[in-house]
Design goal:
single chain, alpha/beta, 5 helices
């Protein structure tokens, strides 16, 4: 029996229930509905020491992140756009992928990476999405064709008296579907 695909989600902010964390939760829930096992690293899980390539010891949280990424068939990143770029919290977590440089499956090789950006405007969303895709390429991953950009001004994931925006939810589900589709195709090879 073939084990389920394993999809790792990484992102969010230190603010509980941030838009980028909500987007990641929706995306991973859709991956789970497609038969995948998932693991979320968000907010407090990303409070890691600043990445230091000269330090070989890893805290339990740092080791858990790297080990999950090593096992992952696909990865989904969700970040707020801070000043037109990836948040420092998310970027620092991504830097830990450097620990995978000598692995047989180097960095994110053979893995699709879905990218989600939450921001207050289209310019910030576009520049951050482009930057995320550049990082994925540099780490030998495959950015999904669709990258979700979510304008958080109108509370796209709902709240008291506000229903979730179906387009925002659909955007997250599309990212999940593309990551899962790629992972299935890669596994079939």
């Amino acid at each position: 029996m073939t084990p389920p695909l394993f999809i790792v989600g990484l992102g969010g902010t230190l603010r509980d229930g941030s838009s980028s964390e909500q987007a990641l939760q929706i995306t991973l829930a859709h991956a789970a509905s497609l038969g995948c096992d998932t693991q979320l690293f968000a907010g407090p899980d990303l409070q890691l020491a600043l990445y230091d390539p000269g330090r070989s010891e890893r805290s339990p949280a740092e080791a858990a992140l790297v080990n999950a990424l090593r096992r992952a068939d696909g990865v989904i990143w969700a970040t707020p756009s801070y000043h037109g770029g990836i948040s420092g919290l998310v970027k620092n977590a991504i830097d830990y992928i450097e620990d995978m440089r000598l692995d047989e499956r180097v960095y994110l090789s053979g893995r699709a990476v879905g990218c989600i950006v939450c921001a207050h405007g289209p310019q910030a969303m576009g520049t951050t999405l482009s930057s995320m895709r550049d990082v994925v390429h540099t780490l030998r991953g495959w950015p999904t064709p669709y990258g979700a950009t979510i304008n958080v001004t109108a509370k796209p994931f709902g709240g008291p008296g506000v229903a979730p925006d179906p387009e925002a939810v659909q955007a997250c589900q599309t990212v999940a579907a593309e990551v899962v589709q790629f992972a299935k195709a890669w596994r079939a090879n």
